[in-house]
Amino acid sequence: MKKIGLILLTAFYVSIDGVLFYRENTSLLLMQYPSGKRDEIYTAPDGVVTIAFSAFKDNSHIVSAHLPRSLNVIGSLAFADCQSLTSISFGGDIEHTGIDAFESTNLTKLMIGSDPEYQGEDKGTYLLIDGDWVKHD
Questions:
Q1: Is the pLDDT of residue 1 over 80?
Q2: For the stretch 24-60, what's the b/e string if a residue is b when 16 or more beta carbons lie within 10 angstroms of its beta carbon?
Q3: 27-32, strands of its sheet edge to edge
Q4: Which of 27, 35, 92, 126 could disulfide-pair with 69, CB 3.0 to 4.6 Å?
Q5: What is the CATH number of the domain that holds 58?
Q6: 64 domain-assigned
Q7: Residue at 6 is within a domain
């Protein structure tokens, strides 16, 4: 599947660039990123607060994901088996990351605090070196 389209528009579900979201007031929950979507870089829109269970699972094309400061929760297995995934940038802090959210990826680089307004002490770039995340500035 390369794209999710909605035949009947509802007050709660919306497709943005072929990605399925659940809309709750001004917040968005990223429900499903199509496993066949060929974009190598994905930037989630502002307002995304949750990435659902298995939302990106099995997408073999995504290399990098840019997640907004509004994001609080990454569900279990959210990026599992995204074997091309090497880097993720977070706009700010994540309150909860589910079990095996990044299982079977090739993640080697994390950026925390990519939002210019974020001032947390963990802000920076981290590289995976010999199995350990090391801050690299």
A1: no
A2: eeeebbbbbbbbebebeebebeeebbbbbbbbbbbbe
A3: 13-16, 19-24, 27-32, 48-51, 73-74, 96-97
A4: 92
A5: 3.80.10.10
A6: yes
A7: no
Q: What string of DSSP letters covers 50-113?
A: EE-TTSSTT-SS--EEEE-TT--EE-TTTTTT-TT--EEEESS--SEE-TTTTTT----EEEE-
Residue-wise pLDDT tens digits, 67-94 = 999 999 999 999 999 999 999 999 988 9
Q: Decide if 129 is inside a domain.
A: yes
Residue 38 located in a structural domain = yes
Question: What kind and span of H or E run contains 132?
Answer: strand 132-136
Quick one: how far is CA 37 from the chain centroid?
A: 14
CB under 8 A, 24+ apart: contacts of 61-67: 61/36, 61/37, 62/33, 62/37, 63/87, 64/40, 64/88, 64/89, 65/41, 65/89, 66/41, 66/42, 66/114, 67/91
Q: Supply 73's token pair.
A: 């929760």
Q: Write down the pTM of the prediction.
A: 0.87
Per the structure, the count of domains in the chain is 1
